[in-house]
Amino acid sequence: MEIDETDRRILKALQKTGRLSNADLADNINLSPSACHRRVQRLESEGIIKDYVALLDPRKIDRKTTVFVEITLSGQADAILDAFERAVALIPDVLECHLMAGTADYMLKVVASDTDDFARIHRKFLSRLPHVSQMQSSFALRTVFKTTAMPV
């Protein structure tokens, strides 16, 4: 699907404020409400707009500690990778899991209330992940910049 400049304006506006009404969105991008609605529906049906979510303030829900965990597995066979990926997806405190190129096989983004809570997550979940040969955790001291908006 070809994304034109009008689609880009829609995507930028919705990434900034996902709760815009169709009328407000149409007004913001200088399009009629019916044309705007058709374009948004097309962007949704094509899978370009995947979902709408509420972004929470981690400090206000007691998840102020972010930890990046590098994981090296004991091998690279499909069965090993699949077993690890199935298990890590079940850990509620893991926000992201990325298969990496480089020294680590996976990079996890984990949230916790504090270091004691991360120790609990490590003991209860991370240390029990299958086929892990090495794990290194790095605590974020401060979030300098964060966005969920994709450049369009």
Tell me about this structure:
A four-stranded antiparallel beta sheet has the order 2-3-1-4. Helix content is 35%, strand content 20%. It folds into two domains: 5-45, Arc Repressor Mutant, subunit A (Orthogonal Bundle), CATH 1.10.10.10; 58-139, Lrp/AsnC effector binding domain/regulation of amino acid metabolism (RAM) domain (Alpha-Beta Plaits, 2-Layer Sandwich), CATH 3.30.70. The protein is elongated, with a radius of gyration of 20 Å. Helix 2 packs across helix 3 (33-45). The chain starts with a helix and ends in a 13-residue tail after the last strand. The chain is of the alpha+beta class and 152 residues long.
Question: Summed up, what is this model?
Answer:
The protein is α+β, with helices and mostly antiparallel strands and 152 residues long. The chain contains five helices and four strands; from the N terminus they run H-H-H-E-H-E-E-H-E. The protein has helices spanning 5-16, 22-28, 33-45, 78-88, 115-124, and strands spanning 65-73, 94-99, 106-112, 132-139.
